[in-house]
């Protein structure tokens, strides 16, 4: 069984990858490369979905009665993931705006 820290770092890793891909999508759209921008948005969605699966596994474990220690690292991971999801949503809107104005 994986340690809780390893599971938490998966949330941070996938969340960070998703956020980075979303920011790259904005840069691609800014350059007028909407194919690349949409690919990066898809990449972000996949990474965030991975992070969400890890998060869901922790939630399901708690439903089964497995207690999860709430640490500063866990709080950071959750904050990191929610921030990444917000950035991805905003990036989608920004890419769409760039595309409309081209």
Give a description of the structure.
With 102 residues, the protein is an all-alpha fold. 85% of the residues lie in helices and 0% in strands. It contains three helices and no strands. Helix 2 packs antiparallel against helix 3. The model has no long low-confidence stretch (mean pLDDT 96).
Shape: elongated
Helix- and strand-based class? mainly alpha
Mean pLDDT score? 96
Helix content: over 70%
Largest sheet geometry: none
Number of strands: 0
First and last CA, distance: 51 Å
The number of helical elements comes to 3
* Strand residues, percent: under 5%
Radius of gyration in whole Å, from Cα?
Answer: 16 Å
Low-confidence stretches: none
* H/E topology pattern: HHH
What is shown here, in short?
The protein is an all-alpha fold.
């Amino acid at each position: 069984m994986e340690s809780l820290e390893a599971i938490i770092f998966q949330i941070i890793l996938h969340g960070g990858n998703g956020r980075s891909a979303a920011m790259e999508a904005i840069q691609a759209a800014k350059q007028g490369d909407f194919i690349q921008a949409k690919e990066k948005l898809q990449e972000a969605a996949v990474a965030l979905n991975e992070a969400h699966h890890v998060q869901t596994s922790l939630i399901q474990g708690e439903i089964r009665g497995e207690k999860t220690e709430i640490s500063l690292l866990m709080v950071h991971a959750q904050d990191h993931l929610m921030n990444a999801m917000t950035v991805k949503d905003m990036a989608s809107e920004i890419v769409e705006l760039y595309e409309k104005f081209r």
